[in-house]
Amino acid sequence: MSQDNYSLVQANFAYWKDDVPSIFMQSFIGQANAIHELVEKSPGFVWRYSSDDVVDMHVAKIFGSKKIIFNMSVWHSLEDLKSFSFTGIHLSAMKQKTDWFDEIRGRGSVLWWIDKSKTPTVEQAKEKLDLLAEKGPTVDAFTFGKLFEPISQNDEVLG
Question: Residue 137: inside a domain, yes or no?
């Protein structure tokens, strides 16, 4: 199958620190809103999960905590996602993550390929994160550190 039939999903989560002052939370939320506006205008962006609530009860139920912040987006290509993720305001916010969030045991981020006609769900993201934690990077759930082609019957690692 051709890579043209697939889009790349990225999902990540973090847990708010217990002692994060509300002013720092508001600082993060302000940056997140600016990032969301920018992501939707970025080349290669397809879709993102969104919730109007800081505490998304659906996500909290899936992950078992009200302290969670969750992000998921879909991209045309790995290059598009990298271009957005590792530059500008998004990169600056990632460098500040220890100000707002506890360190995550295991993995807090996952990538996977999805058929272009599908939209990923929070439940799928949790399954992919669990799969990554259990088996490490595979063609079904991987990281920027070990990338896979979007071909289910071929476990070829990208260079």
Answer: no
